[in-house]
Queue: 4 jobs
Job 1
Amino acid sequence: MRLLVQLIKTMEHDLGYDLAEALEREDLSREDLKALRQPPVEGVPATITDKQLACFLDACDKNIDETRKVLKIYYEARKNGPELFNNRDPHSAAIQQCLQNQDYFPLPPTPSGYSVVFHRLKNSRSSNYHFDEAIKTYFMTIDSCLYTQGPRPGIIFLFDMKNVGLMHLTRINMSSVRKFFHYLQDGLPAKLKAIHVMNVVSFFDKILYIIKPFIHAEILNVLYLHTSSANLDSFYEEWIPKSGLPSDLGGDMKSIDELHQDHLKEFERLRPYFLAEERQRNGEAGNLIDEPTDRMLKSLSID
């Protein structure tokens, strides 16, 4: 009975999307998921689930060898960046401070099936911006999107620079910038299709000067800048329709503030997942299994 309780506790780190639906939608194979487990990838928890693996497999276009490389990078990046990936309790004072001063939420998948993650500063006061915690909360928002939407043909990052000022640049931690882009470009369990920056500021060239050394050329090729006066008709048509955007950006959905408030409830709901994922990553969940937990539970006999 204790083993069953421990196994169920371990399953809290699993994602919440429908695996069967995602495998069919993305044309992924359960045999490929099985192939990713043997031989074990160094640094990857034995408790990793099929739902977790499916995101990596889809991101790597079903290439087993490439998927294994990305899995290794993903866990190494999280291990080597504790300031960005540990202490992810949504109840913590640091994360609550971010959620009070910034807006974060996923948007509905686009007609092309892409996930979308939105981020904006809620106010322009630079003293309210804590760079490492902001990145941590952003990564948690990406994880919440993967938790719900699962593997997709790609992911779009949508940033609104409306409240960004020059003083925010003084809050940047260069070591964290490097880790941020290393994870997004090399370890993310999703295909980065585009980065759209709305209400781009006049000093964006200074921001680009800071981040350019850490960005791959292919990422610069999918970076799109939109000024506050830009005509967004082509953006709505090619990338995200009005039906999938906040009203603040000319969309038909709720306002940014309302969508953020809704996502706060989602963060609260996912608190057990964030805590369990960190335990899994740091070895506290135990190396209980070498096969998916759901199959293990089906064959488990209780004394």
Job 2
Amino acid sequence: MSSFLFNLLLKPPSAANGVAAGQPFIPYNIDWIFPQLQKPSRLWRIASTGVIGLVGFFSKIVIVWLNKTRVHNIQVLENALESRAHGVPLLTVSNHHSCFDDPGMWGLLKLRLLKLRNVCNKNVIRWSMAAHDICFTNKYHSLFFMYGKCIPVVRGAGVYQPAIDLCIEKLKLGHWVHVFPEGKVNMTKEDLRFKWGVGRIIYETPVLPIIIPIWHMGMDTVLPNEPPYYLRLGKKLTYNFGKPIDLNQLLNKLRASPVSEEEARKMITDKIQEEMMVLKAETERLHLDHLKS
């Protein structure tokens, strides 16, 4: 793997919080990126094929072959990728413990599925929000992550911003979108309140997505959040894919009652977090068994 790709994938979290109190830090103008992602050109598709394939295969090597990984219930995601009806969107949500969580976790997808169909296919692999001040700091980084189907999100800019709008657009097209609802790399692993952006995404998508929760443990031992920043080998990782979260009843209730959009976003997000906390407790037990083995 080239040093360029290594630096792109393993860039540590930025310490900058903003130019002024309460104002998001904008190190690089990202406005030009959104039109490219909304209507990808032929050149974009060619470049994306190369980036997705390279990063997907690299992730497979690191996570599956060079570390000791236990995976539970990944068939839930694979079934959704292979068998969901045309036009039905897919939304995955997971905790965020390391800068290598994405793309690392997608290396778990089986290479045998339709000749690399999932892990290395730009038409199948997820769209994912990525921090603008980490991944989109200059033109070359922006191109790389853009071709990797990453959408620049400005942390601190609220739920009404282009990144959230674009995630909704992609789901409307029946695509797969991944969200880290904690909103940042959770270095302390505390129980953070989930960001309401995930609630808005679900509430404003016309066709309710298949919502699959994922909890993982050990990724911060593969790529620590403190220097030196390099990949470790032989670490024990645990991934747990939960059953799809059914929000039909909640959404029907919200749309039948006179609640504000803000209230609706909060209630949806709270439900997602509730389900994720159940999955977290289960995964902690599974990971402890893995460490003892």
Job 3
Amino acid sequence: GTWPAGSPAARTIIQQCSRAKVKIKPALDGADAQWAEIQEGMVVYVCFFHGATEDVTHEMVIQLKLSTGCSVSVLDLPGNVLFIPQDSLLGEPVPKRRVQYKGGCEPWWGAQLLSNLVFTCRELVAGSVKCAKADVKVEQGVYGQKQEIVLNCVEPMTLLLEF
């Protein structure tokens, strides 16, 4: 089916952090859990709606702004980025104080879109001298698993963006 005009293809919540990590592998057979971790930068919670295409991931990377009193693009502000898939962002309020989660894309496609988003972001970072000097990292959680996170921030600046 066609996607209604004006409906978002993706929704993100961006949160500034001084340090953040997400568990990517649980502790198993005596081995420690593994985490994807960043210092100073931002956490980007992301969900994709049904009908989202690869185009949206390119648009997202270009538009990802961090509000620091003024909008600064990720590339101008050498900070790390941690992408965390978060399907709960699909939630829409319905009567009787309930929340309905619908309209998400197929899990295999969501995983592909997240992978594209991270790849595109890493490519842009790799091509930036400023990012290379600041040793910028782009990390991600594992799509489709529970997102166990630890987040430190001095001042939680949070921004909702739809694409």
Job 4
Amino acid sequence: MAVAKLLAAFLAVLSAGTGGAGAWDVKLELDDGMPLIHMLRPLLSTGGHLGRKGRVPCDSWRFAVETNTLRDWKTIPARCEKYVGNYMMGGHYRSDSRAVVNEAIAYAESLKLSGNGNEVWVFDVDETTLSNLPYYAKHGFGAEPYNWTTFGNYVQEANAPALPETLRLYKRLQALGIKPVILTGRREDKREATAKNLASEGYTGYEKLLLKPQDVKVHSVEFKSGERKKLEDAGYVIVGNIGDQWTDLLGEPEGARTFKLPDPMYYIG
């Protein structure tokens, strides 16, 4: 039965073409509820067709990014703009984020807290608590070179939406008695806008909001690991750490457990 459904869905997608929006309208599902389109997507324009032009399929490129195998890249490959756009705007990005957060919540619920109120969980901001997708959708989903000025202006508007899955984790941790700490690579001149945006999207009651000093030149791993060390020195126990970049998670102390959210739009070294 599942094979028949798979064949029917594949023929429906082929008849819709490899480049049109109709290719993403297939609604058939497997018995376990997983949309068939996710099984077929790498065979179509967003993976196979575009990928063949660049010798590496865009889904394989994204895998290399997420595993921190591919590093120090400045923009996504031009051939992958459509792929990344479909990934971010479709259900796949949300589904991947949900898988990460489900595991994070299961882990948090398994913890035996000290009762001293000193357990904290570290959250990044961009593409972790808040989504800059409204900005990147206008700038090629990362295919355009990063522009400090235009992105800075966007941040100051303080209108970035929350990532729903991260907000779910945030609220669950608070209910469990684990205090959130917000640690971002944004500079101090963005503090007011960042605090305003977080509050408007439901991120309230956090223990600390830590931003990078305005004029200090320091790599992200050094800055964030240094701030986590300060937390531990102050008596906090970092039970969890979540971010979209590997630089959010690497460098001692990392926290008892780290969780990597997907982000194929940009790389921070």
